[in-house]
Amino acid sequence: MTYDKNKAGGPQDHGGPQDHGGNIYSPDTNAICDFSASINPLGQPEGLAKALTERWSETLHYPDRHSAELTDALADYYGIEADKIIVANGSTELIDLIFRTLAPRRALLCPPDFGLYWRAAAKQCEVVTVERLEAAGFMPDFAGIKKVMQEGDLVVLSNPANPSGVCASRGDIISLAKAAGEVGAHLLVDEAFMDFNPDQSVLGAVEEADSFSVLRSMTKFFGIPGVRLGFLAGSVEMVGKLGAMRLPWSVSRVAQIAGVHCLGDEYWSARTLEYVERARGKLVDELAALPGFNPIDSTVNYVLVRLDPPAPDACQLYEALKEQGTLVRHCGSFGLGERYVRVAVRSVGENVELIGNLKRITGTGEVS
Predict the structure, then answer these.
(1) Residue 205 contacts residue 82 (beta carbons within 8 Å)
(2) Chain centroid to CA 240: how far?
(3) N or C: which end of the chain has fewer CB within 10 A?
(4) How many other CB atoms sit within 10 Å of the CB of residue 32?
(5) Are 315 and 323 in contact (CB under 8 A)?
(6) CB 84 within 8 A of CB 234
(7) Residue 334: domain span
(8) Does the residue 121 lie in any domain?
(9) Distance between CA atoms of residues 162 and 165, nearest Å
(10) In this structure, are 189 and 284 located in the same domain?
(11) Which of 221, 238, 263 represents a domain boundary (last residue)?
């Protein structure tokens, strides 16, 4: 793996043209198909715009600083007690908030992973890394983490993994949480994409231990990244500490209304999971048929692709696709150099267009 653990600052400093996907607003981007941000390809639950319009008058008032209506909806949807949930302006707010609240002695991070963890940690503490296992699709090295974990550490990792999409089992995560509790560390599991693979979630287990918390994003699965909405589930004590540190009114009334409506769509999950599984399988097969393209098995709505000769490197491929109006995620910002890109699972037509563009770029025969 090309991650340089001696370079200060973490994966976000490792080159490449992107530090995050979804930057369609750049003046030099004329994107038609955005595969760089992994948002639900079905879009948003039906009736969302209507629900916002009907309740628009509520924006004349300050939002509920406790997001009580949404918190109750989350508690019902996920089967968690409401006093163990805190809602925020996207999971990114909560990442910053938990570092400021816990003030850990060290941050134990597992590259490749989401670069914001390094940015948040750099403001607070020393960073220690335990690299993921590339041969296992970048599964966390649980034995390695347990070996170096110490009292006062904050261990942060994404599951399903970002950018690979591999998902550690519920049992492995709970075992790690118990090990953290035994040494006096805290585990923060970022389940931003777990709605796409719900069977392995540890959300319900926060009621069994104080040694870990779980982050969730509502923007990916419900197709509302422009709204910004996420939550954390943890012990009552942890939620209380975070609430005391959080700035008031960080979650707008629009976001609260949107979240309640999305959770009320009883068919959304089944429709999404059925589509993504089918579309991902087809996309992976077509990517694997391209010379030098090696997609990693994923459990979510994106696919990490290793590029080996004769495939172009990540920067060449990114720029060539960008010229054709298609954005993919260059994974240099994850510390993976020029050998990996990540592509979202999009609509049938968009997926066909991506494969067609890749065939044109690589000169691999007729476009179907």
Answers:
(1) no
(2) 25
(3) C
(4) 11
(5) no
(6) yes
(7) 11-43+268-362
(8) yes
(9) 6
(10) no
(11) 263
**Tokens 């020393």 -> residue:** 126
Chain position carrying tokens 């490197």: 313
- Rounded distance, CA 3 to CA 337, Å? 7
Residues 200, 92, single domain; the answer is yes
Instruction: Identify whether 368 is part of a domain.
Output: no
Residue 350 Rama label (left phi>0; alpha psi -120 to 50; beta): alpha
CATH number of the domain enclosing 63: 3.40.640.10
| pTM for this predicted structure | 0.90
Residue at token pair 């005391």: 244
Which two three-digit tokens encode residue 194? 């777990």
Based on the fold, state whether residues 25 and 59 are members of the same structural domain.
no
Q: Are the C-beta atoms of residues 161 and 138 closer than 8 Å to each other?
A: yes
Q: Hey, what are 3's tokens? A: 């991650």
Do 272 and 259 have their domain in common? no
Please name which of 44, 45, 69 lies closest in space to residue 55, comparing C-alpha atoms: 69
Q: Which of 156, 169, 175 is nearest to 299 (CA)?
A: 169
In a domain, 136, yes or no: yes
CA count, 13 A, side-chain hemisphere, 274: 5
- What's residue 206's pLDDT? 87
Domain boundary among 263, 282, 307: 263
CB atoms within 10 A of CB 301: 28
CB-based burial of residue 118 (10 Å sphere; 0-12 exposed, 13-18 middle, 19+ buried)?
buried
